[in-house]
Design brief:
Blueprint lengths: L10 E4 L11 E7 L2 E5 L10 E5 L6 E6 L6 E6 L7 E4 L11 E3 L5 E9 L8 E14 L1
Parallel strand pairs: 6-8
Antiparallel strand pairs: 1-5, 2-3, 2-4, 4-5, 6-10, 7-8, 7-9, 9-10
Length: 140
């Protein structure tokens, strides 16, 4: 059987960093000596195909659900948005923004498109969002 040892849906891996309070934040797999661990993004262009579902301290098991356009997700929001806004990764180098999304900025730059807002949202809200095929978007 070519499809042995595969799984569908939620994954459980060691937390690569302290993920306490990270439920609902975007995350990615981080290579740690050949082992995939769950971590938050480090750059606005990081590919983050999961959302944290089960928090953990570093070195303990955390859970993450893969993003899919077949389901909506509530994602931590920086700033406001309205339905239909394109949501990109917020700047993880700013305190409190790692793993959150923000409305596609008007400022020049390259951003990681994550989802579309399905409702109006305000700063700090977990906004109802529909994941899209992730891609880099350049604003000039």
């Amino acid at each position: 059987m070519k499809q042995s040892n595969v799984q569908r849906g939620r994954i459980e891996r060691l937390a690569n960093q302290d993920l306490t309070g990270a439920r609902g934040l975007l995350c990615k797999l981080v290579n740690q000596d050949g082992v995939g661990e769950i971590g938050l993004p480090a750059a606005i262009t990081d590919f983050c195909p999961y959302v944290v579902t089960d928090e953990a301290v570093e070195g303990k098991n955390a859970g993450a659900e893969p993003l899919t356009p077949e389901a909506s997700f509530r994602l931590g929001l920086i700033g406001p948005c309205v339905p239909g806004d394109q949501l990109t990764l917020a700047d993880p180098t700013v305190a409190g923004q790692a793993g959150k999304v923000t409305k596609l900025p008007a400022a020049s730059g390259t951003y990681r498109l994550i989802a579309l807002a399905e409702e109006a949202g305000v700063d700090g809200q977990f906004v109802l969002s529909r994941p899209v095929a992730q891609q880099l978007v350049t604003v000039q």
